[in-house]
Write a structure and sequence with these properties.
37% of the residues lie in helices and 25% in strands. It is of the alpha/beta class. Strands 1, 2, 3, 6, 7, 8 and 9 form a seven-stranded mixed sheet that branches. The N terminus is likely disordered.
Amino acid sequence: KLHHRTMSRPHHHSNPILFKLIAKTQSFHQSASNLLRPWKVSHVISVIICCIITFTFLFENYSQSQFTISRSIKNGNKYYIFGYGSLINEESRKQTGITGKAIPARIHNMKRGWIYDVDTIHHPKLSNTPYTAVGVTIVNNFDSTVNGVIFDIEYDEIPKYDEREARYQRYEINPKDIEILTTQKDNDDSFHFLDENAIVYVYVVPDEIVLSLDDINSRILKQSYIDKFLAGCFDVDGYEFAMECIKSTDGWNGFYKNDRDKSLFSQEKIT
């Protein structure tokens, strides 16, 4: 329409630039008409539907990966992990994934010991295997407790910890067994750390792979792991908390190996 109105003006030949623009517009209009002429209405509708389906699929996948899964609240729940060994150590946690605030806690009906074999097959990313790590089992004794930290975690970070803990089993802790502790660094807000929608996981050692505490030679206690474990305990609340970590862990009489000279963490953080 713009083309026809412009061409009706008697003085358009006096402007060569305008004349070229009009010629190009007319050529584009004819090309578009020739291109669309063979198409039926049904073809156009089909293309539009395909575009809508493709856009919807891409948007749904993008929204799930960028918004839904990445939130720590999924299906109305908020997720936490109870760390009782090297996961007590903040620097060790950061090597695995993104975590939030950590609060000291004590879990009842649980027992800790040097009972997990960190082998090369199931932990190919570790360079200092084999060695023994601490693990926990669930017991029917409320007075049996394990201290550590509860830290909140994004939903999509959980698989990273599943991979780190390899043959451990992720177990949901009964809220009645959770005792939140206050420290010199915290205040009464610690008691409100968990709400009714909180799900707290812990990695337990399956019964079939628990190392026997009676076999001293089956356990290899490396100083580099002990450093991470106890350094985390000291960082949480000092001497008393670290002593509880030691006393509530069975199996310290395994085969001991001092490998501090091969551990960057020990060399940089331990005095």
